Automatic annotation (TrEMBL):
CDD domains: CY. InterPro entries: Cystatin_dom, Cystatin_sf. PANTHER family: CYSTATIN, SI:BUSM1-57F23.1. Pfam families: Cystatin. GO terms for cellular component: cytoplasm; extracellular space; vesicle. Residues 1-22 form the signal peptide. This is Cystatin domain-containing protein. Residues 27-132 form the Cystatin domain. Keywords: Signal. Belongs to the cystatin family. It comes from Alosa alosa (allis shad).
């Protein structure tokens, strides 16, 4: 259900008319449109991307989202997100089932570029990441 809500919110935000410099500019379907990095929609997509990264990372501990720097979306036959975010390694081990919100953060931080694609024929999004 959350997937469909996220996709609907993205579609609506991409199709809305946004104020420009003294004029009204229309956001283009099929083009990349900026999103508010602090919006609930972007935060949910970023969290999903970090969770996926965390599970695949060669680290004994979980990673958690620290901050989203920028986000944009493109609506085609799927909804594509580009998100630039800072993530941090927690002190919680992947061998434990924990609430990440309660995990103490370690010192390591990474800058990551995430590409997240929600396709209508897939239950889970496809996530690509590049962190440094």
């Amino acid at each position: 259900m959350a997937l469909w809500v996220t996709m609907l919110l993205t579609l609506l935000s991409v199709c809305q008319i946004a104020p420009g410099e003294g004029a009204v500019e229309e956001k283009k379907m099929g083009g990349w449109n900026p999103l508010d990095p602090e919006s609930q929609q972007v935060q949910e997509v970023a969290k999903e991307a970090v969770d996926r990264f965390s599970m695949k990372a060669n680290s004994p501990n979980y990673f958690r989202l620290v901050h989203v720097t920028s986000a944009s979306a493109q609506v085609t036959n799927a909804i594509h997100y580009k998100i630039i975010a800072t993530i941090g390694e927690t002190k919680c081990s992947k061998s434990e089932h924990v609430d990440l919100k309660k995990c103490e953060m370690g010192k390591e931080r990474k800058q990551c570029d995430f590409e997240v694609t929600y396709s209508l024929n897939s239950v889970k999004p496809q996530v690509k990441s590049r962190c440094r």
